[in-house]
């Protein structure tokens, strides 16, 4: 029994605003990330390797707001963050405030495996990445016209960077990516990566690198990856809340995930979604936005990809 | 009904290694922080103002590993972090990777009140502090011979910076501070501030600035501030777990706090403690280290201060 579930963010434009071409490209990219992660699981690899591989594939695609296609801060540079968590050991790694690392999720993995800490941020994190021989890129690698224009539009509007505005702006500033997986050994893992809110302040840390907020994995309960306005996920400790409801209220994953999203995030006024997977392969993919790029693949090898309800 | 509970860290030297002078000075400092926060509550002020005031007083005292007396990274500078959370609104603010801000907890408060984000880190956070007219200090303000020597000793030992080593080193690299309070309006609040592990890597983010890990407050359940090896508190989402056990298992705060510390932190091999307070003024102060600097003051105005069991 193995399974991989991914998301490409809850920042999906309304159906009418989505072009046929963009939808087709996005579906291909999601299917390719599923294929890459599924190959790991099918070869007997770990869920940890599978989520790292799937998320790295999404980071390399400029369509998603993570890695290559990251959003810009209001000062005009990308500032990425990512996390990974191993459900077997409950160890985790995270990195934040990254400007040059090609695959933030791979740095998160190195923080977990090769550092004494759970989270590294800023220039020191990038020095560590260099020491680990991870590829670094120049600013032009991360430059996409679409993200740049979205940042400029949002910045000109002024005021606080809000998820609502980004959704209204055809969702073009959006697209955190993530993956949760179950491998043949029965181990769960989760990973999340993002460029953050378009026109966010430099130095802003969101929920993505935070265990319990934007990512969580524990073999006893579930693996979770979140997407949406990070401030709400952080303050609601949403990812861990799914696990806590399963452990303490004995809820099924679908019920726990829906309740966590509603009561810990949506009720406070937040927008977003999450993917969650338990050890029996049950998954839940709730969101309260018009859509969420998502997909999964299991034992039968069929890759299913969805955008709207 | 109002109450204030504080801690000055779980990194307490063994009884035999504590000098009479240091113990006396520490008791005076804890009592002074209690008095400062209690004055806010007694004057009808908010729990939020009380925890900020008490934590700022501890940050100003060089005896504790936060603000003035912060530990040094293995590169020889301080890198502080802090957080604050309002149990009424469940809003929060946090700041990390600070080198110059005199009172990190006051910056955390400004992030909550005056920024669109929940967490800011690094140079951008200090630029924000400057814009907010918060006092910044030069490196010599933060220099204490004791912390410097501890860092050098630990660095010379090599290997990963571990809480165990710091405890063995007479606990001199330790001393995260925190406060939880209940005000006359029935509102809870929590704040935590730290210089982090002595000889930690530059760029390391611990549990202190993370909602759900090192800090949490919700009027429906409790206010929590943690101290100890941050990596374990982060991965265990310990602060929120106390609240989750109260909400979902209907446990009393003493039982919830002890179980969260044991099952989510100690069982994984972690060392530390926490303080927790509920809306009826019940509090719990569990720790699995030789001691934890701590104290509380309630309606009767008597300031109680403890170090060991």
Oligomer: homodimer
Q: Note poorly predicted spans of chain A.
A: none
Beta-strand portion of chain A reads: 15-25%
| CATH A-level architecture of chain A | 4-Layer Sandwich
Number of helices of chain A: 9
Largest interface chains and counts: A-B, 48 and 49 residues
User: What's the CATH topology name of chain A?
Assistant: Glutamine Phosphoribosylpyrophosphate, subunit 1, domain 1
Proportion in helices of chain A: 25-40%
CATH homologous superfamily assignment of chain A: (Glycosyl)asparaginase
Biggest β-sheet description of chain A = 8 strands, mixed
Overall mean pLDDT of chain A stands at 94
Question: How widely separated are the two ends of chain A?
Answer: 27 Å
What does this structure look like?
- Two copies of one chain form a homodimer.
- The first copy, chain A, is α+β, with helices and mostly antiparallel strands.
- Chain A has a single domain, classed as 4-Layer Sandwich (Glutamine Phosphoribosylpyrophosphate, subunit 1, domain 1).
- The first copy, chain A, has helices spanning 20-42, 47-60, 104-114, 122-131, 145-157, 163-168, 230-236, 238-249, 253-264, and strands at 3-9, 80-86, 92-98, 119-121, 177-182, 188-194, 215-217, 222-228, 272-278, 283-284, 291-297, 304-308.
- In chain A, a hairpin with a 6-residue loop joins strand 11 and strand 12.
